[in-house]
Structure formats: C-alpha cells, structure tokens
Amino acid sequence: MRNAALALPSLCAVCHDWSQARLCDDCVQRHAAARPRCANCALTVPTGTVQCGACVSSPPPFESAVAAVDYAFPWSRLVVALKFHAAIDLADAMAGLLARAAREAPSPRADLVLPVPLSRERLAERGMNQAWELARRTARLLGVPATAHGLSRPLDTPRLADLPRESRTASIRGAFALAPGASAGIRGRSVALVDDVMTTGATAAEATRTLLAAGASSVQVWVFARTPAPGDA
Ligand SMILES: [Zn+2]
Ligand SMILES: [Zn+2]
C-alpha cells in the first residue's frame, strides 16, 4: 500500500497541474533557474560579478552563501506554507532545489550541516523547525552529516521580519548558544548553516559568530530563498 501511494502523481505546488513531483519540471525551469549571485551573501548580481557592493565594503562573517531562489513569487508562498502551516510535503522539493544550488556553488565541501535553530517557544508554537526540515533533507541529498543539536536559541527574540532593517542586528545579538555537548562536533569543522530565508543576513551572521567562536573552521550559509536587495525586487 505504501509503495503504491508513493508512486501516485501529485499536484505541483506552484501551477497545480498533475506531476510526478511536488514541483513540476516546467515550474522549476521557469521560476528556479540558477542566477548569478554574490558569492558572499547570495544577492543576485550582474553576470560576471563575484561580489555585491555591500560585501566588497563590509563582508559578512560567513565565508560564502548560496540561495536556491529569490524570496518572491511563487516561492514566498511555499516558504510561508512550510513555516506557518507545516506543509511538510513541500520540504523534499525545496531541499532538492537547495541541494542543487549548494552542489553548483564553488564553496568547499561542508563537513556538517546545521539548521538555524528556533527558540523553544517558537518550536512549540510551530511544531517543527522549517530550517531543520530543509537542512536534514539537503544534507542527505549531498551525503553530508546533519544535526539539529548544534546551535540552540535560548533567547526568544522578536520576529526580525517585524523590525526595521537597521535594528535587526542589535536585536539578534547573543541570541544563539552551542547546544549541550555540541562543541566537540563543531571544533575544526567546516559548517553549512541552513535557513529557509535570508533577508538582511543578521541572523546568519550572528549564528556564524557563535559557530566561529566555538572553533568552526569556516561557515557557509545555505538558504532556500534570498530576499532581493531593497529596490531590486
Ligand atoms: Zn508546476
Ligand atoms: Zn553580497
């Protein structure tokens, strides 16, 4: 019964046509084509450009970043569905796109994949951490170990999306800590940090600082969707 159910076609989450996968090939080609992105922060850049202007003048603490898509139609709707409506059936398809982006990036191979953690309160409210759901599937596709017990988030910071851009860095400071017993697994490792969306990069930067302080040899960031720069949407 179970195998029969798996073989059934499903509806594409974007165009709602029948498909063999939760995202049909047409929609992937139309809406998720690889675009040139800043090697540091994954903002889209003109072809032939390696770094965006912001990263040239003030590089983030993470070494590199990849994004599967821009946080825009139709992907923003899927991200919201995964995050707030626990649409876990989307996670495999989204992780497939993220694994493709990570595989094609020039960054060195990661030793360990970690999700950006949620606070205990937020995890209880949502019932799952969407970053972990993406991280573990992406890691499996790439053959890299993953753990949900790398970073913890003792502080329940305000939702950054509710704050103006300029106050996000201050509000996230000190939000992360190492999970109990995680330090030996992080020291000397090249870590890939996974999140569903990167907007200003303040969250990824703060998590990166925590990992580097714990002895990680480098941190790269893998996000499913990158918010375009203001005015560049
Ligand atoms: Zn489709
Ligand atoms: Zn950049």
Say what the CATH topology is: Rossmann fold
Task: Give the CATH class.
Answer: Alpha Beta
What sequence of helices (H) and strands (E) makes up the elements? HEEHHEHHEHHEHEHEHE
Q: What is the CATH-assigned architecture?
A: 3-Layer(aba) Sandwich
Determine Rg (CA atoms, Å). Answer: 17 Å
> Helicity, in percent?
25-40%
The average pLDDT is: 91
The helix/strand class is: alpha/beta
Number of strands: 8
Q: Stretches where pLDDT falls below 50 for ≥5 residues?
A: 1-5
Count of alpha and pi helical runs: 10
Main sheet?
4 strands, parallel
Strand residues, percent: 15-25%
**Dominant shape:** globular
Topology, element by element:
Blueprint: H1 2-7, E1 10-11, E2 18-19, H2 25-31, H3 53-57, E3 64-70, H4 75-84, H5 91-104, E4 112-115, H6 120-126, H7 130-142, E5 151-152, H8 165-172, E6 177-178, H9 183-186, E7 190-198, H10 202-213, E8 218-226
Helix pairs in contact: 5-7
The structure holds zinc ion (2 copies).
One zinc ion is lined by residues 12, 14-15, 17, 24, 26-27.
